[in-house]
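Design a sequence for this backbone.
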């Protein structure tokens, strides 16, 4: 390309292409390509040392942007720590807590064997106490895997536990009986079947991730 020369870098495993442009006077910009590599556009007059410095700066900036685009997992892990401390004496210590998009039939799941907790991203945007109660439910499963009385003694320690269950039942009910104009069929393994639904709580198989909340 006329008036432009390119240099390649590898910064911490990220391949970076620097394009120097004579037309560029002062601005430096950067973007990520689909393959994950980064293009940094710099004015041609920059020295190599300045160029390298800008590359480092721009990569840090892009990484910060990427983190901001996926908010929530860190916040969720922090909520889990607080809830465990407040209601479970800090005994529930998940190895990871994260949002997932592929849980349409359940609000949260927990695999006690490896200590991981996942919450459905459908909860995002619901009141904080609802998210907290689902999170506390899954945290309690790290201590008691089944839905025994001992489990509910822990899971129901949140002062708004009953209110949260009501909220989620109402939500599930509305989903199951959509307004006629949407024309959506209720979906689920068993379809609409009386009072049961996604928020019904049944005994999970031992060793299986918790299926329901
Ligand atoms: Zn459960």
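Sequence:
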């Amino acid at each position: 390309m006329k008036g432009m020369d390119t240099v390649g870098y590898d910064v911490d495993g990220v391949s970076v292409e620097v394009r120097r442009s004579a037309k560029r006077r002062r601005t430096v910009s950067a973007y990520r390509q689909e393959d994950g590599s980064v293009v940094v556009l710099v004015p041609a007059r920059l020295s190599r040392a300045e160029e390298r410095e800008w590359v480092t700066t721009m990569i840090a900036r892009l990484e910060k942007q990427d983190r901001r685009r996926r908010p929530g997992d860190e916040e969720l892990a922090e909520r889990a720590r607080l809830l465990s401390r407040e209601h479970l004496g800090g005994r529930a210590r998940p190895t990871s807590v994260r949002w997932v998009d592929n849980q349409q039939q359940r609000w949260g799941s927990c695999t006690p064997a490896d200590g991981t907790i996942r919450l459905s991203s459908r909860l995002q945007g619901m009141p904080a106490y609802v998210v907290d109660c689902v999170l506390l439910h899954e945290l309690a499963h790290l201590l008691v895997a089944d839905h025994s009385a001992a489990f509910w003694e822990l899971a129901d320690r949140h002062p708004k536990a009953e209110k949260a269950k009501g909220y989620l039942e109402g939500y599930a009910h509305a989903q199951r009986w959509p307004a006629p104009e949407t024309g959506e069929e209720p979906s689920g393994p068993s379809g609409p079947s009386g009072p049961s639904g996604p928020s019904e709580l049944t005994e999970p198989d031992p060793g299986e991730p918790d299926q329901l909340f």
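The chain has two domains: 4-69, 73-182.
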